[in-house]
């Protein structure tokens, strides 16, 4: 494309170099110099009587009104490129939809170029940070929603906001087969390391690190000798603090001590937990108990979680008071205005726009889900030959976008299911897109509900479905039922 652009530029103005030379000659005449064609060759000046060796070339004599050769060459170069830029600019400008400049970013947890439609959640977290730093009681936040709505992106944004306020921060991703002792230890270690350079009492930091090491070494896997893991803390483990072996007691003591360290600096510590619904039941109970103790003491440590829609029921099943510990924020698909803004704002920064019909088609295809907005927007940009991007461009891009989603977003999850689990999901999809009753799924398959419990529980553990409420189940991925109906049985 660049070669074609340069050829087009040459056709627009084929004598740019000649014009540049003429311009330089005109400048010479204006300065009182002879025309360039009449300039005599440079003469060797006479040797100085001060002892220069024969053959030495002295600097050219400066003639009044005449510019030096270096200045004349610089004038030719600048005039040539300035003239060349004039025809090139409109040619390059017309090819404004360039795949290299594509701003859209569909990816797991990848921040979009424009975080649209989340102002309310950002403002709420600003309030949480400010109140906690001032020692005022405030609930932590829990984000819930389907996959692809931007929970992880928002969680990472919250983390950046806390870091900008000089808080200590740490983040973990929960796993259903792992205790939270080690991940929490690593996250709090990182948070305190961020605070340590500004702390005036190094011995306070070392004291906390000793408690942290004692907490980490009580991990059941380490106790059984099945792992050679070490927390990487170069201080002796403390005794008598956060080392009882009871996670609820130990985690509470650890959180209280961590909050005390941050209080010395007038800031707080924020622990971010992604996939919070995968925290094991005993661990989630201990986590709620520790947060409850902090809310009573006013310690500046908050736990911010993100998970699937059934996370509130998971928390309430562990502790009856959990609904009073957290501020729940349901993260859903974007409304029409926010979805359009997510597409238009980054495009306009690249001097590209969309027709209204294209925006209509994109919203219908993406249904407002942020991941889909980015996926369809990216392919539509790549397909469009010029700005504005039209509805025809979107129509041409849709099959490619759907194919990419089928392989990466839907297919990767579908492949994790066993044949029996796939039959269960196909039965769900055949009933409809809304949450379905487990009894209805059993009836569709001609089986007893109790015989399908293993498949259902395994799908929940794999994060493919969730229990919307008692007796009802739903897919964790938007449009997954539509994808399944298109798959051969």
TrEMBL record:
Cytochrome c domain ranges (all copies): 263-414
Taxonomy, superkingdom: Bacteria
Entries under Pfam families matching the protein: AAA_16
Keywords: Heme, Iron, Metal-binding
Compositionally skewed regions (Low complexity) per UniProt: 33-50
Location of the region described as Disordered in the Swiss-Prot/TrEMBL record: 33-77
Single GO term (MF): heme binding
PANTHER family the UniProt entry points to: ATPASE DOMAIN-CONTAINING PROTEIN (PTHR34301:SF8), DNA-BINDING PROTEIN-RELATED (PTHR34301)
Identification of the protein by name: AAA ATPase domain-containing protein
Species annotation: Sinosporangium album
Highest classification ranks of the organism: Bacteria, Bacillati, Actinomycetota, Actinomycetes, Streptosporangiales
């Amino acid at each position: 494309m660049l070669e074609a652009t340069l050829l087009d530029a040459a056709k627009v103005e084929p004598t740019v170099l000649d014009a540049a030379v003429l311009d330089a000659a005109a400048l010479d005449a204006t300065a009182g110099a002879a025309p360039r064609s009449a300039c005599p060759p440079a003469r060797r000046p006479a040797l100085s009587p001060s002892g220069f060796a024969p053959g030495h070339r002295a600097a050219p004599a400066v003639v009044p009104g005449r510019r030096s050769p270096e200045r004349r060459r610089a004038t030719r170069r600048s005039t040539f490129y300035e003239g060349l830029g004039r025809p090139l600019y409109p040619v390059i400008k017309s090819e404004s939809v360039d795949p290299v400049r594509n701003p859209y970013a569909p990816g797991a947890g990848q921040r979009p170029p424009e975080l649209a439609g989340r102002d309310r959640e950002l403002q709420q977290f600003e309030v949480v940070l400010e109140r906690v730093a001032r020692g005022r009681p405030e609930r932590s936040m829990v984000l819930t929603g389907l996959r692809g709505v931007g929970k992880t992106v928002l969680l990472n944004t919250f983390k950046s906001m806390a870091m900008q306020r000089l808080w200590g921060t740490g983040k973990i991703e929960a796993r259903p087969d792992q205790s939270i002792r080690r991940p929490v230890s690593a996250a709090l270690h990182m948070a305190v390391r961020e605070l340590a350079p500004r702390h005036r009492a190094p011995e306070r930091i070392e004291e906390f690190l000793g408690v942290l090491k004692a907490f980490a070494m009580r991990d059941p896997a380490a106790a059984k000798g099945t792992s050679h893991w070490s927390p990487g803390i170069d201080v002796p483990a403390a005794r008598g603090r956060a080392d009882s072996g009871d996670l609820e007691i130990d985690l509470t003591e650890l959180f209280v001590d961590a909050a005390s360290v941050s209080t010395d600096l007038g800031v707080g510590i924020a622990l971010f937990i992604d996939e919070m619904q995968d925290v094991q039941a005993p661990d989630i109970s201990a986590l709620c108990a520790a947060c409850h103790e902090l809310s009573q003491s006013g310690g500046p440590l908050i736990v911010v979680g993100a998970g699937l829609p059934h996370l509130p029921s998971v928390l309430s099943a562990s502790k009856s008071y959990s609904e009073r510990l957290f501020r729940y924020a349901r993260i859903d698909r974007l409304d029409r205005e926010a979805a359009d803004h997510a597409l238009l704002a980054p495009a306009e920064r690249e001097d590209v726009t969309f027709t209204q019909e294209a925006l209509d088609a994109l919203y219908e295809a993406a249904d407002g889900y942020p991941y889909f907005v980015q996926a369809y927007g990216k392919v539509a940009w790549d397909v469009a030959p010029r700005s504005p991007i039209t509805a025809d461009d979107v129509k041409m891009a849709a099959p490619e976008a759907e194919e990419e989603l089928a392989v990466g977003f839907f297919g990767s999850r579908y492949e994790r299911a066993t044949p029996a689990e796939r039959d269960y999901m196909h039965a769900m999809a055949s009933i409809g897109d809304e949450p379905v009753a487990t009894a209805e799924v059993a009836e569709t398959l001609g089986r007893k509900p109790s015989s399908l419990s293993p498949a259902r529980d395994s799908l929940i553990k794999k994060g493919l479905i969730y229990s919307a409420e008692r007796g009802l189940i739903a897919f964790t991925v938007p449009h997954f039922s539509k994808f399944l109906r298109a798959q051969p049985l």
